[in-house]
Write a structure and sequence with these properties.
single chain, 274 residues, alpha+beta, 2 domains, four-stranded antiparallel β-sheet, 15 strands
């Protein structure tokens, strides 16, 4: 088993916390837990955060309780089912699930799915070439961890506190920006094609401009940044963001077309028997 498989689904199971489940007549057992390696390696959490400098997180394996969360119409309608799932799985209650970076959040979700239902993921996909819909199988253990990188040649410095410093090539403004949490990423995605999406994203990630951290300075930079600098900042932030790479090879069973495809996370992801 590869190192990535160890991290994402084949991690060691420990009969430790959470506490034993107590039933009638004194019956009890310990829910197994596992450690999941974090793509962030704890590098992008500020000092004082429970995950600062921590490269793994302990989660319990899914139980019927977690399946109830995933089938709750109320939680699904509110769009918070996965948030509640992560909250239920994390053993360390000092960790706020809302503060998890998107890559660490994704690592937990994939690990929970692999330990609960296995690494084989069959779902319906559409061939980009012939547009034929077909059932296709993906191996979740083949997912790779992307740790994120900052490059000096792009004028980027990792500040070690969850932020990076970037000298923008056109304006030469020194911008400090932060990585977004999974919940913040979700909020931006929900904006869809609404007006102001790019400027809203920039306002969310920029911490300061030339040392000025006032909201007025951040708003001015986000709304007036030349497109070249805007694209550069978004590119370096994407490069710096740790995540899980779910890109895998797809081969159409109808026309034989092959290409790399990102594994689609549909309703089948947590319900393989649907």
């Amino acid at each position: 088993m590869s190192r990535n498989q160890d991290r994402l689904g084949g991690a060691q199971h420990k009969d430790v916390s959470p506490p034993p489940q107590q039933g009638g007549g004194g019956f009890s057992f310990v829910v197994p837990t596992e450690f999941v390696d974090l793509p962030s390696q704890g590098r992008f959490y500020a000092e004082g955060h429970s995950l600062h400098g921590i490269d793994s997180i302990e989660i319990k394996q899914m139980t019927a309780k977690e399946e109830d969360i995933l089938t709750s119409r109320t939680l699904l309608k509110k769009g918070v089912a996965l948030d509640k799932l992560i909250e239920s799985l994390i053993v360390d209650r000092t960790i706020n699930p809302a503060s998890l970076l998107i890559g660490d959040r994704n690592a937990i979700i994939i690990a929970a799915r692999v330990s609960g239902y296995g690494n084989d993921y069959n779902t319906s996909v559409q061939c980009p070439a012939c547009e034929t819909k077909q059932n296709y199988g993906f191996d979740l253990n083949s997912a790779n961890i992307v740790y994120g990188e900052t490059r000096d040649d792009l004028g980027v410095t990792d500040n070690g506190d969850g932020t990076i410093t970037c000298v923008l090539p056109k304006t030469q403004v020194t911008a400090v920006a932060r990585l977004l949490t999974g919940r913040e990423e979700k909020t931006l995605l929900n904006l869809g094609n609404n007006e102001g999406l790019i400027s809203t994203q920039l306002q969310s990630i920029i911490v300061s401009a030339n040392g000025d951290s006032s909201q007025q300075a951040i708003d001015y930079l986000a709304n007036n940044l030349p497109s070249f600098d805007s694209r550069h900042l978004r590119m370096v932030m994407k490069m710096a963001t740790p995540n899980i790479d779910l890109t895998q090879n797809f081969s159409c069973t109808e026309c034989g077309h092959t290409q790399e495809m990102e594994v689609p996370l549909t309703a089948d992801f947590f319900w393989p028997d649907r």
